[in-house]
Amino acid sequence: MVSPLSSPKIISKYDRDISHLFSRYNINSDSDDNLLSICNLKQININFLIDLINCYNDLTNLNKTNFNNYSVLDLVDYLEKSHDFYLNKRIPEIEQSLNKSCVQQKFTFNLLFLNFFQVYKKDIISHFETEETILFPFCKTLARYSKMKQHEDLVYILENKDAVLDYMDLHKKNNDEVGDLQKLLLKYSPSNNHLSYFEIFLNQMSIFQKDLKIHAEIEENILMEKIKVHLSNFEIKDV
Predict the structure, then answer these.
(1) 227 to 28, 44, 232: CA distances (angstroms)
(2) Roughly how many angstroms between the first and final C-alpha of the chain, as a whole number?
(3) What's the domain range around 165?
(4) Is residue 238 in some structural domain?
(5) Cα–Cα distance between 117 and 98 in angstroms, integer?
(6) Which of 69, 73, 82, 229 has the most CB atoms less than 10 A away?
């Protein structure tokens, strides 16, 4: 397990895929500094980061980790950073591998995957945009109001809480869609013996699926439940 004295370089040595998590927090994955000093400098919740690292290293830790211990702002910050990473790096890299696969192996099957992925990409971008427009601003305002008790925040909460509650009730896990795509893809085995772009694509999708599973757990089972509890206990005093 990772400790506060572990360095990103050592952690990444045993799991290179973890470097993408460090990049979200603008941490150099080759750094020899320990996590404690890095998190103090960057004002990152070190316990939250370590829990994330342990979950990315071993997905079974997801069921053992109590993310309820962390603030709404820590959770939203991670989710926003993840959205940015998915849209600007993860999805473009996956799409690039799939496009190269279509060039490398000109099968109709590959073109079907490409079309399927384009539909999925459109859906997930729309999903993220809705969260960043409706859910995340509401979460930040609710967290700020719990401390500052500003009247304008109260008005915003009262005007938007029904829309947010409706959105959370209708929320669907995007990782289920990725899982369906992954199952479909795994039915096909590339004919080449060397590492093809399609196999790279499969590996990228597998990593993305694990990433989205952690993302969905934090978003749906932790953040949204926290918001529902906050709203159920909400007292209208200064209206």
Answers:
(1) 33, 22, 9
(2) 49
(3) 67-232
(4) no
(5) 9
(6) 82
